[in-house]
Amino acid sequence: MILLVNSANCQVAGFAAATIGWLLSTTSMGLVEWRLWHISHAPPLLSSLVCVGMWRVCIHYHDSNKAIFCYHYTYHDNFLPLDICVSQNLLLVATVLGLLGKASIIFAIRNLYMGILRKTATCNPFIASGILYLSASVCISVAVIWNYHSVRNEQGIHFPSSFYVPFKPDTQEIGSAFLVAALAAFLMLLSGFIFLSYRVPLDSQVHPEIAEI
Predict the structure, then answer these.
(1) Given the DSSP bridges, would you call strands 47-52 and 35-40 parallel, antiparallel or unpaired?
(2) Which residue stretches of the chain have pLDDT < 50?
(3) What are φ and ψ of residue 182, in 5° steps?
(4) What are the structural domains of the chain?
(5) Distance in angstroms (rounded) separating the CA atoms of residues 213 and 3
(6) Which of these, 3, 78, 102, 140, is most buried using a 10 Å CB contact count?
Protein backbone atom coordinates (compact mmCIF):
# COMPACT_ATOMS: atom_id res chain seq x y z
CA MET A 1 0.00 0.00 0.00
CA ILE A 2 2.90 2.38 0.78
CA LEU A 3 4.28 1.72 -2.71
CA LEU A 4 0.89 2.56 -4.19
CA VAL A 5 0.67 5.85 -2.29
CA ASN A 6 4.20 6.87 -3.31
CA SER A 7 3.45 6.08 -6.95
CA ALA A 8 0.22 8.04 -6.80
CA ASN A 9 2.06 11.04 -5.34
CA CYS A 10 4.54 10.86 -8.22
CA GLN A 11 1.69 10.99 -10.71
CA VAL A 12 0.16 13.95 -8.88
CA ALA A 13 3.50 15.74 -9.19
CA GLY A 14 3.49 14.95 -12.90
CA PHE A 15 -0.03 16.32 -13.16
CA ALA A 16 1.07 19.55 -11.45
CA ALA A 17 3.99 19.93 -13.88
CA ALA A 18 1.69 19.26 -16.83
CA THR A 19 -0.85 21.81 -15.60
CA ILE A 20 1.79 24.51 -15.17
CA GLY A 21 3.20 23.66 -18.59
CA TRP A 22 -0.23 23.93 -20.21
CA LEU A 23 -0.88 27.29 -18.54
CA LEU A 24 2.49 28.61 -19.69
CA SER A 25 1.78 27.37 -23.21
CA THR A 26 -1.56 29.18 -23.44
CA THR A 27 0.05 32.29 -21.91
CA SER A 28 2.85 32.31 -24.48
CA MET A 29 0.30 32.37 -27.30
CA GLY A 30 -1.10 35.67 -26.01
CA LEU A 31 2.29 37.27 -25.51
CA VAL A 32 3.65 39.46 -28.29
CA GLU A 33 7.35 39.30 -27.32
CA TRP A 34 8.35 36.34 -29.49
CA ARG A 35 10.69 38.49 -31.58
CA LEU A 36 12.02 41.91 -30.68
CA TRP A 37 12.90 44.12 -33.64
CA HIS A 38 15.04 47.20 -33.04
CA ILE A 39 14.65 49.77 -35.82
CA SER A 40 16.47 53.08 -36.18
CA HIS A 41 15.63 55.95 -38.53
CA ALA A 42 12.34 54.55 -39.76
CA PRO A 43 10.17 57.59 -40.61
CA PRO A 44 7.90 58.69 -39.11
CA LEU A 45 8.89 56.67 -36.03
CA LEU A 46 12.56 57.76 -36.04
CA SER A 47 13.43 54.98 -33.64
CA SER A 48 11.20 52.16 -32.49
CA LEU A 49 10.81 48.73 -30.99
CA VAL A 50 8.63 46.25 -32.84
CA CYS A 51 7.34 43.21 -30.94
CA VAL A 52 6.38 40.39 -33.28
CA GLY A 53 4.11 37.77 -31.76
CA MET A 54 2.26 34.73 -33.04
CA TRP A 55 -1.07 36.52 -33.20
CA ARG A 56 -0.23 40.23 -33.34
CA VAL A 57 2.49 42.80 -33.86
CA CYS A 58 2.98 45.90 -31.71
CA ILE A 59 5.05 49.00 -32.51
CA HIS A 60 6.50 51.27 -29.82
CA TYR A 61 7.94 54.77 -29.94
CA HIS A 62 11.52 55.07 -28.75
CA ASP A 63 10.45 57.35 -25.89
CA SER A 64 7.30 55.48 -24.82
CA ASN A 65 6.75 52.26 -22.94
CA LYS A 66 3.27 51.85 -24.38
CA ALA A 67 2.54 50.43 -27.80
CA ILE A 68 1.32 53.08 -30.22
CA PHE A 69 -0.01 50.53 -32.68
CA CYS A 70 -0.99 46.88 -32.45
CA TYR A 71 -2.32 44.77 -35.27
CA HIS A 72 -3.97 41.39 -34.73
CA TYR A 73 -3.33 38.86 -37.47
CA THR A 74 -6.11 37.22 -39.42
CA TYR A 75 -6.07 34.19 -41.69
CA HIS A 76 -6.45 36.59 -44.63
CA ASP A 77 -3.07 38.23 -43.99
CA ASN A 78 -0.78 36.96 -46.73
CA PHE A 79 2.29 38.82 -45.43
CA LEU A 80 2.83 36.37 -42.58
CA PRO A 81 5.81 34.04 -43.08
CA LEU A 82 5.36 30.29 -43.08
CA ASP A 83 6.92 29.80 -39.65
CA ILE A 84 4.37 32.03 -37.92
CA CYS A 85 1.42 30.47 -39.75
CA VAL A 86 2.52 26.95 -38.86
CA SER A 87 3.41 27.90 -35.27
CA GLN A 88 -0.06 29.36 -34.74
CA ASN A 89 -1.63 26.00 -35.57
CA LEU A 90 0.95 24.05 -33.57
CA LEU A 91 0.29 26.09 -30.43
CA LEU A 92 -3.46 25.63 -30.86
CA VAL A 93 -3.01 21.88 -31.27
CA ALA A 94 -0.80 21.80 -28.16
CA THR A 95 -3.54 23.55 -26.18
CA VAL A 96 -6.13 20.97 -27.23
CA LEU A 97 -3.77 18.06 -26.53
CA GLY A 98 -3.03 19.53 -23.11
CA LEU A 99 -6.74 19.70 -22.27
CA LEU A 100 -7.26 16.11 -23.34
CA GLY A 101 -4.23 15.07 -21.31
CA LYS A 102 -5.60 16.81 -18.21
CA ALA A 103 -8.92 14.99 -18.52
CA SER A 104 -7.16 11.66 -19.00
CA ILE A 105 -4.79 12.06 -16.05
CA ILE A 106 -7.58 13.20 -13.70
CA PHE A 107 -9.45 10.02 -14.59
CA ALA A 108 -6.30 7.93 -14.11
CA ILE A 109 -5.40 9.43 -10.71
CA ARG A 110 -8.98 8.99 -9.53
CA ASN A 111 -8.87 5.30 -10.44
CA LEU A 112 -5.45 4.93 -8.81
CA TYR A 113 -6.56 6.34 -5.46
CA MET A 114 -9.77 4.32 -5.55
CA GLY A 115 -7.74 1.17 -6.23
CA ILE A 116 -9.55 0.22 -9.42
CA LEU A 117 -6.62 0.63 -11.83
CA ARG A 118 -5.51 -2.78 -13.13
CA LYS A 119 -2.58 -4.03 -15.17
CA THR A 120 -5.07 -5.96 -17.25
CA ALA A 121 -6.88 -2.79 -18.36
CA THR A 122 -7.11 -2.57 -22.14
CA CYS A 123 -6.32 1.15 -22.08
CA ASN A 124 -4.08 2.61 -19.38
CA PRO A 125 -5.08 6.29 -18.96
CA PHE A 126 -1.56 7.10 -17.71
CA ILE A 127 -0.11 5.91 -21.01
CA ALA A 128 -2.69 7.92 -22.95
CA SER A 129 -1.88 11.03 -20.89
CA GLY A 130 1.84 10.55 -21.45
CA ILE A 131 1.40 10.32 -25.21
CA LEU A 132 -0.83 13.41 -25.27
CA TYR A 133 1.61 15.52 -23.26
CA LEU A 134 4.62 14.34 -25.25
CA SER A 135 2.77 15.27 -28.45
CA ALA A 136 1.92 18.70 -27.04
CA SER A 137 5.55 19.20 -26.05
CA VAL A 138 6.71 18.35 -29.57
CA CYS A 139 4.26 20.88 -31.07
CA ILE A 140 5.48 23.66 -28.77
CA SER A 141 9.12 22.71 -29.30
CA VAL A 142 8.78 22.97 -33.07
CA ALA A 143 7.28 26.46 -32.74
CA VAL A 144 10.03 27.51 -30.31
CA ILE A 145 12.91 26.13 -32.39
CA TRP A 146 11.52 27.57 -35.63
CA ASN A 147 11.14 31.00 -34.02
CA TYR A 148 14.71 30.81 -32.70
CA HIS A 149 15.98 29.80 -36.15
CA SER A 150 14.17 32.75 -37.78
CA VAL A 151 15.70 35.22 -35.32
CA ARG A 152 19.19 33.76 -35.62
CA ASN A 153 19.02 33.97 -39.41
CA GLU A 154 17.56 37.50 -39.24
CA GLN A 155 14.63 36.62 -41.44
CA GLY A 156 12.36 39.51 -42.35
CA ILE A 157 8.61 39.98 -42.74
CA HIS A 158 6.84 41.95 -45.47
CA PHE A 159 4.58 44.04 -43.25
CA PRO A 160 2.12 46.39 -45.02
CA SER A 161 3.58 49.77 -45.89
CA SER A 162 1.10 51.47 -43.55
CA PHE A 163 2.97 49.93 -40.60
CA TYR A 164 6.14 51.89 -41.50
CA VAL A 165 8.16 48.80 -40.62
CA PRO A 166 11.02 47.73 -42.92
CA PHE A 167 11.38 44.19 -44.22
CA LYS A 168 14.27 43.57 -41.82
CA PRO A 169 15.18 45.41 -38.60
CA ASP A 170 18.61 46.72 -37.71
CA THR A 171 18.83 44.05 -35.03
CA GLN A 172 16.47 41.44 -33.66
CA GLU A 173 16.43 39.13 -30.67
CA ILE A 174 14.19 36.58 -29.00
CA GLY A 175 11.76 37.84 -26.38
CA SER A 176 10.24 36.63 -23.13
CA ALA A 177 7.45 34.68 -24.86
CA PHE A 178 10.10 32.38 -26.33
CA LEU A 179 11.36 31.50 -22.85
CA VAL A 180 7.84 30.96 -21.50
CA ALA A 181 7.02 28.57 -24.34
CA ALA A 182 10.34 26.73 -23.95
CA LEU A 183 9.63 26.16 -20.24
CA ALA A 184 6.12 24.95 -21.11
CA ALA A 185 7.54 22.42 -23.56
CA PHE A 186 10.02 21.14 -20.97
CA LEU A 187 7.36 20.70 -18.26
CA MET A 188 5.02 18.88 -20.63
CA LEU A 189 7.90 16.66 -21.77
CA LEU A 190 8.79 15.87 -18.16
CA SER A 191 5.20 15.05 -17.22
CA GLY A 192 4.80 12.91 -20.32
CA PHE A 193 7.78 10.75 -19.34
CA ILE A 194 6.47 10.48 -15.77
CA PHE A 195 3.12 9.18 -16.97
CA LEU A 196 4.65 6.79 -19.51
CA SER A 197 7.00 5.31 -16.91
CA TYR A 198 4.14 4.47 -14.52
CA ARG A 199 3.64 0.82 -13.67
CA VAL A 200 0.75 -0.47 -11.62
CA PRO A 201 2.15 -1.76 -8.29
CA LEU A 202 1.57 -5.39 -7.43
CA ASP A 203 0.03 -4.32 -4.10
CA SER A 204 -2.81 -2.70 -6.01
CA GLN A 205 -3.92 -5.99 -7.49
CA VAL A 206 -6.93 -7.68 -5.95
CA HIS A 207 -6.42 -11.31 -4.93
CA PRO A 208 -9.42 -13.45 -3.97
CA GLU A 209 -9.36 -14.84 -0.47
CA ILE A 210 -9.69 -18.61 -0.09
CA ALA A 211 -12.04 -19.47 2.70
CA GLU A 212 -10.85 -22.11 5.14
CA ILE A 213 -12.83 -25.32 5.17
Answers:
(1) antiparallel
(2) 1-6, 119-122, 202-213
(3) -65, -40
(4) 2-202 (1.20.140.150)
(5) 33
(6) 140
